[in-house]
Amino acid sequence: MQMNYTGEHVWAGATGHFFIILSFTAAILSAGSYCMAARESLQEDAWKKLGRLAFRIHSLAVAGIMATLFVMLKNHFFEYQYVWQHSNLAMPAKYIFSCFWEGQEGSFLLWTFWHVVLGNILIRYAGNWEAPVMTVFSLVQIFLASMLLGIYFGSVHIGSNPFLLMRQLPENIGLPWTKLTDYLQKIPLFQDGRGLNPLLQNYWMTIHPPTLFLGFASTLVPFAYAIAGLWKGKLSEWQKPALPWTFFGIMILGTGILMGGAWAYEALTFGGFWAWDPVENASLVPWLTFVGAGHVMLVNKNRNISLFSTFFLTIITFILVLYSTFLTRSGILGNSSVHAFTDLGMSGQLMLYLLFFVWMSVCLILINKRLRIGYTILSACLLLIGIFTGAKTASVFSFALLSILALGTGYHYYFPKEEKEEALWSREFWMFIGAIVLGIASFQIILYTSIPVLNKIIQVNFIHHPVEVIHHKMQQWFNYNGLANFASGKLAPEKNAIGFYNKWQSVFAFVVSFLVAFGQYLKYKDTPFREFSKKLIWPFFVSLVLAILIGYGIPRTGSLQFFLNELLLFSCLFAILANLDYFRRIGKWKIGKSGASIAHIGFGLILLGCLISNAEKEIISQNSGMDLKYIDKELSNSNNILLTQGDTLKMGSYYLTFTGRKKEGIYIYFNVEYLKKQEDGKYVSSFVLKPFVQLNDRMGNVAEPATKHFAYKDIYTHVKFAELDVPDDINGQDYTIPVAKTMARFDTAYSSNGMLILDSLTTHFSHKKYGLPDSVPAVQANLRAIDINKKTYAAQPVFAIIDNKVHSVDDTIKALGLKLNFWNVDPAKGKISIYLSERKSNKRDFIVMEAMIFPWINVLWIGCLVMITGTILAIRDRLKKLKKSVVTD
Amino acid sequence: MKRTHIVGIIIIALAIGMIMTSLVSTSKYASFTEASKSPDSDFHVVGKWDKEKGTVYDPQQNANLFVFYMTDIEGVEKKVLLHNNKPQDFEKSEQVVVVGKMKDGEFQASETLVKCPSKYNDNKPVQ
Predict the structure, then answer these.
(1) Using a CB-CB distance cutoff of 8 angstroms, which residues of chain B are in contact with residue A699?
(2) pTM above 0.90, yes or no
């Protein structure tokens, strides 16, 4: 039955659907035509033209999808699930971009968009490479576009469509409300959306994702060139045009990652800029291999060796980007990451794409046609086995093994190998070593990050496997080798995972920074050892002395003087100084020609900043009063401290006071004042920090730290706990629920702001003053209150009995906000009972907070800027050279 | 022996070392019962907070102690002492992962991971 719903903006969804289908089909057409164009000889221009046209249509369609989604978000069409789920009316308009890419569909769109931009640039400039390169681009676009299709085959669906109406969602179909034609008006939930995750309501979130995705997208360019090179049999020519793109990608991806770090540092509660969170790792790993790829390309360009490594690293970078997407978007990291996405049911699809591109790359690396066919047939068999027998992991594993085997075969038979070994002191040898170290470093990170994947594999395939015997046997073997946790499929990340990563990665960082220091001094082919060691002697000794002075000369609280850190400190300084010296002596301070040196200086500075700010991080909020070590020596985790309003506590060289909270809209700001003690004992305010909590009922409240930046240190302050549902009338005149106090003469009772003493009881007092007849039996209590400043106040509540009923006359001490109700006398024990209530404002507000000092963290940020600048300069230089070579060709 | 062979051997050694250190992790997802069997090692226990027993957090006394009761997947309930601040929004938790050791029938935790109702995936506007 066709129903007419009122108030729905059906046209928007229809437009969106249309563009999705268009972008998908145009991508297929483009891939097909470009493929034909690449196969034919160059005279056949028609295919190429058709491919171009199709890609342009695809580009327009992608732009159309994005525009439609923006219009829907802007105009709050809450009948659409994407709009309802990711935005709301209250949100400031500037976060519309964050809403756009909060969901998976939006972030896939962003990724697609950058591919479209890069693809169009390539159409213009790729020249002869256009057809094969654009074939790869279009292929990737087919897959990405299909992520938005949202086609259902029973329970299996391909893609997730952002233009679905709420009532069209499979889980909502058939629900009673979908049968109301005026559901939009009737159901209050549709009046407003759920809103944006509070974590993403931050300005970094408007620039970090686009930069990061441009970085991811730019890994496709060298990949496409590499594939094109293999396909067309031009095994080394592809690198020339791919090289500037590679460094462009390295720069953008690096910037994106660092922006993520800056966001984490500023807005997240990691307590630092890098926490080895799986999502962070997933973007760092392809960057490392990308850097490796760029550098072996340089080697290959100059010496025509390491050809296989250029292919391997370029391809693996793109594959790792896909794997990262799978890791963060399949929901598999659910338990181990703060910001992994939940499953949209597309992990199978992502996995298939990943396998497809692995297959394509490996197949092409097998230069021989027969081998290619053989490999393809075997892969196809495994795919079928995987799909139809349910032994998915087994077949994926076999496929991985097969692919490694095929890679080895390809390398062995079809890639040129140097007859003579390259000289020990040659640039190519050490650059190659550097690339390998980067590869190993990324392997360590990705392996440890993939633990949840390993668990899943073990659980699915062995624990619940019908053939228990196999598992039993395996477990015995694993137990024997200390791998019991792994075998049980319940491997958990180490408690101190950050330390674990740091330890491994410091070793790699040491090697890499050392290579960065002397790499440029080496010549290609061979360098006389004496010649280059003479040039390096000064930077070497200066940095050694500096490292010893910094590490051991100044008394340190942190871990900088630990051997490994000390080594790393030395190698970072060496990298910086050696490159600076190179810039001076060989580069002659010519900025335009010294991009590499500058970028390397920046890299050294980044590592140095990371090292110092981490190793010498000082938690000044450590709780000195309580020592938890008696419970367990590992439990000295007392980084949080209670700060009560008005109190002043010493932390580090500061005195902290919490001066109160202020509510502004959905934000509660906590004013923490940092004071310095002067010589005369007076406290002077240094600065005020306002960490805050963003209230969000539906998605949970989010606390954001506040940081004071100095040139040489940052002070980070974070509210770990505060009572958020404090009533608004905390400053009002209301009283708390009375507390009963039983007192004999001279007993004391405590209020939150002083103490009460019962001085005496008397029956001789003026009844009239209390409005009581003289005949009534009554007792007056003489209470004395003393506040913290030893000031005394008096109160005289009265207890009387009129007609056998208790009649109390309360007294208050206004200055202390106390109300006293005298309600019982126990003559036998000589005790009286008093109800004590306090004004609500007497209860002092408090926060539990953490404060840390990050010394010299600015070195890190300066390093980022220097590295980015250096890379831009190097790319510019390359492009100039490329142009020249084109002209001379 | 060629130099590349030496490099190759070093790489393989490193790779094996990394795989082993990653897989011989000191921690594991476990139940309370399993954790009590080896009180010296750390465990990750996944479970649910027992709402009826409430929580104790008195920052005035100790800002780094938060106590609650948790039922693990096997249905065993234990007292958990978290030696850290009370996680903000703890009451809204759907699932709690505690990291620490079992001691004298109580779980001494140094970290928790509180999973609140999904921030990304809740499409049911009308029950």
Answers:
(1) 116, 119
(2) no
